[in-house]
Amino acid sequence: MDTTGMSEEMLKLFKMMKMELEKQTTTITQNVTDTLMRSLEDKIQPIIEENRNLKIEVETLNRKIKHLENMNRKNNIIIHGVKETEKSYDDLFTIIKNTLKNINVNIEKFEINKYHRLGRKQDGKTRPILITFTSQQKRAEILKHKKQMPQQTYITEDFSKETIEVRKNLQLQLKEEKKRGNIAFIKNNKLIIKEKSEAEKRKRKSSISPDNIQRKLSPQCNTEKITNTAPSKMHKIDAFAYMRSRSFSLSDKHTQQNKA
């Protein structure tokens, strides 16, 4: 708007009106923005709450799935390194039976729920054997003797990929704790640490009597060498002779007092 030719009073009035309009515009804009934001928050809040609940539900379901997966693998073991010479399902059982017999574990068919090679057959590659037992006792017996397996073959527990990754990291921590002298082991995918008591950590040193210590100064340096020497023999004293000498000394003492 052209303000040329306006009087000074009209110019001041115009500026005041312009400032007031700007204030009102700012106020209206802020109110409209606040109203829209409150409206959006009211609409978004239930969605945010629903999303939070869904996340909690998904986490719960994942934990249940992992638990069920671990339960399904609870009676499983995997034998690695046993050559694929079988031509039938029965041949594979014979191989399993003979393999376990080498570690002094006898197995019968009724003790196994299922067994098979893992993965597709490939030239130059030996597939591991997955075995599911009908009871945990037989599985525990095999794991107890697994260190007796021949070279190039070994037995492992059947874990999911996530569990394997977790236990891999725990193995590193396990080595560190054992280096520190602590008793440590992995149980239920957790590292259990039992610190040794001070009595177990300290080695008992044979006590040295002060009477049996002979200190010698080394001629080359001012260090003390402590050596054990045999204690000097005690002089045997006749009790009656001691009492007689004691009574004589007392009588002499009284005699000297009377003379004085």
Automatic annotation (TrEMBL):
List where Polar residues composition bias occurs. Answer: 210-231
**Which superkingdom is the protein from?**
Eukaryota
Q: Which UniProt keywords apply?
A: Coiled coil
| Record region (Disordered) | 197-233
Q: Which residues form a coiled coil?
A: 37-71
| Protein known as | Endonuclease-reverse transcriptase
- Lineage, opening ranks: Eukaryota, Metazoa, Ecdysozoa, Arthropoda, Hexapoda
